[in-house]
Specification:
single chain, about 150 residues, mainly alpha, 6 helices
């Protein structure tokens, strides 16, 4: 959805550069996050991901898009590292392959369901509604992660 939104003001090559720069921030944030506890990293990732995507979608100014994707990229890097750490802490080594296969299947399901829900939601209610869905999902994750656990 965001690339279509960005396409209103940017050429395809510019969108590619924007996403490539965001990927660099994902890598750096993920590497830094490896020093912290996975559950806290995951919890901390919810705000920048939700805020970054919401601002990127709700604004129409290229400088805001750049800043918003920078914020989201940091959150994504934190989330990737935190999620991996939580998985490694929760599953015994002999079951890790099964757990990762299941994780991949759930992730693929998310990629399939998201456009089916996001597209009609954005069409009917505007991008703000999609941002609200992201915020609600982040809040649900924050509640789940705030409960005591092993990670």
């Amino acid at each position: 959805m965001l690339p279509l939104h960005f396409g209103t003001r940017l050429h395809q090559s510019q969108i590619g550069v924007l996403y490539a720069a965001t990927s660099v921030l994902v890598v750096v944030a993920g590497a830094v996050a490896a020093r912290w506890r996975p559950r806290r990293v995951m919890l901390g990732s919810t705000v920048p991901v939700a805020v970054g995507f919401a601002v990127a979608g709700a604004s129409s100014a290229v400088p805001l898009w750049i800043a918003a994707l920078a914020v989201a990229g940091v959150g994504i890097g934190l989330a990737n590292t935190g999620a991996t750490g939580i998985l490694l802490d929760a599953v015994p080594a002999q079951r890790i392959v099964t757990a990762m296969v299941l994780w991949s299947q759930i992730g693929i399901l998310g990629y399939l369901v998201a456009p089916l829900l996001g597209g009609p939601t954005a069409d009917a209610f505007g991008y703000g509604a999609v941002a609200a869905v992201v915020a609600l999902t982040a809040a649900a994750l924050a509640v789940m992660l705030s409960r005591p656990g092993r990670a």
